[in-house]
Amino acid sequence: MEELFVSKARELCDKCGFELLFLCENGSRIKGYSCDDSDYDVRGIFIQTDYWTDEILNNKTKELKCTFVTGNGIDVEMVLWNITKALNLLIRRESSQCLIMHWLNSPVIYFETTKSQELTKFLNPRVNYQNDIFGFLGMAREEMRKKIIKSENVRRTYKLIMYSWMNVLKIFQIIEYKCLLNVNILDILEDENLLNKYKIDKDSVLNIVKLRKGEKNFSDEEIEKLVSKNICDLKENLSWLEETKFEKVQCIDFNEECKIFFREFFNI
Known about the structure:
Pfam families: RlaP. It is a single chain. This protein has 11 helices and 5 strands, in the order αββββααβαααααααα. The protein has helices at 2-16, 83-91, 99-104, 114-123, 132-148, 154-177, 185-188, 192-197, 202-213, 220-243, 256-265; strands at residues 19-25, 40-47, 63-69, 75-82, 109-112. It is globular and about 65 Å long.
């Protein structure tokens, strides 16, 4: 599968004269709740250097994408970003985001280069993930208020509950560790320090994951109780998070050290 993804990504890049820099998995397959037939969400970064002059972050083509089906019938969504787009999100002064860091630190990397490794090594100790709290909180609220409560499809309800928990648990990681140590919900649920501090009912959340993956059979009554318990716990956690005042920050200080690194990185 890895060879197929790299081949497709290079094909996209070659058509536009770009160089593939990095390729990873960013979907449910790294988050602990995938099934055998789960889609692949492939994300990558490309670079172009033939017209770099005065500005480091100036490029016309921001994104390449395609969808296809693997030989065994599994859907693949592939999205490649120009590195300039990813870095612009990271360094802009207002509402900067760490999406590039999520990709670079993915536990499943399909393709990487020396340059992407250098970039990861440079950025990891310098990036502040606090702004991601706002995005994760917004998604958790959206899932809770507009989707979970109104959903009449039981299977979709516990799927959305799991997504909402994933976002809440990511927020708690950022608060506690100033970064995302794990994106796999099963690994996060092994973090006793996090669970105890934020009073997370491990078994309750874990059963939602098992329900989603079809690993355990529940009666209709058990499902109803489990869903109600998780919705109640989520509401309590979201209420606390909404009352907490989080400040927006710049994800990385684009100081002279950064400027020197990126001049060398882009051969300017």
